[in-house]
Design a protein that fits this description.
Layout (H helix, E strand, L loop, with lengths): L2 H35 L1 H8 L16 E3 L4 E4 L11 E3 L5 E3 L7 E7 L4 H17 L4 E7 L5 H11 L5 E3 L21 E5 L5 E5 L5 H12 L3
Parallel strand pairs: 5-6, 6-7
Antiparallel strand pairs: 1-2, 2-9, 3-4, 5-8, 8-9
Length: about 220
């Protein structure tokens, strides 16, 4: 076959390839859309049950992370916590905003999470010590596909404070990027008496560290 004949055949095939391109693009875009829709939750869950999270100094968002991994925000730079309301693991309704005027210790946990089990006894002990000082503990249970294991977890460790049920992480995603948002499981945030996020830890907390997080917020007037 001559070079001219081969060139003609190639030119005749090109329109067929071109006609297939929109279909391929549509399939590619469809897959990309599916991936994007779950990307935020996936990114959060990939960090689940780690020993920590991103740590560092100030990042321009008004907070500074100390060498102990506890990030804090000056009172004047704090922003309000997002809407954190819904059904608890025992089927009741809860809205964290109703605790305004109290300090709220917000702990993100899962019954499947080893570090969560390690810190549970510390939360129970500190909660018992400070609940009469205007401090309310609240959990956010996540990635448990059923409330049964979560309820069993709380019973096993003697947890008496409520926990919102958030299996898909939707409540966690309400925190704005670049703020003191929960980025790992476990994560602990402290919300001040005005409803603003004051401190965060992205790792399991010892009793000593939990008390250290609370102390300056308790001292505020």
């Amino acid at each position: 076959m001559s070079a001219a004949s081969r060139a003609l055949q190639r030119s005749n095939r090109t329109p067929q390839l071109d006609r297939r391109m929109p279909q391929r693009l549509n399939r590619t875009r469809g897959r990309a859309a599916l991936l994007t829709s779950g990307a935020a939750v996936a990114a959060l869950l990939l960090s689940a049950c780690g020993s920590g999270g991103t740590k560092g100094g100030g990042n321009g968002a008004g907070f500074v992370t100390g060498t102990d991994g506890i990030a804090t925000v000056a009172k004047a730079d704090r922003i309000p916590a997002p809407d954190l309301s819904g059904e608890t693991i025992d089927g009741k309704q809860l809205d964290v905003a109703d605790y305004k005027g109290k300090i709220v210790v917000l702990n993100v946990w899962g019954s499947w999470c080893g570090p969560c089990r390690l810190e549970a006894k510390n939360f129970v002990k500190v909660e018992a010590d400070v609940k009469d000082q205007g401090v309310q503990f609240v959990g956010i249970n996540t990635r448990d596909t059923d409330t049964g294991p979560a309820v069993a977890f709380e019973k096993s460790y003697g947890v008496t404070y409520p926990s919102l049920y958030d299996p898909t992480g939707r409540l966690m995603l309400r925190f704005k990027k670049g703020t003191l948002n929960p980025q790992a499981i476990p994560s602990t945030l402290i919300i001040d008496r005005e409803g603003n996020v004051a401190a965060r830890s992205l790792s399991a907390l010892s009793e000593e560290k939990l008390r250290k997080m609370l102390k300056p917020i308790l001292a505020e007037k």
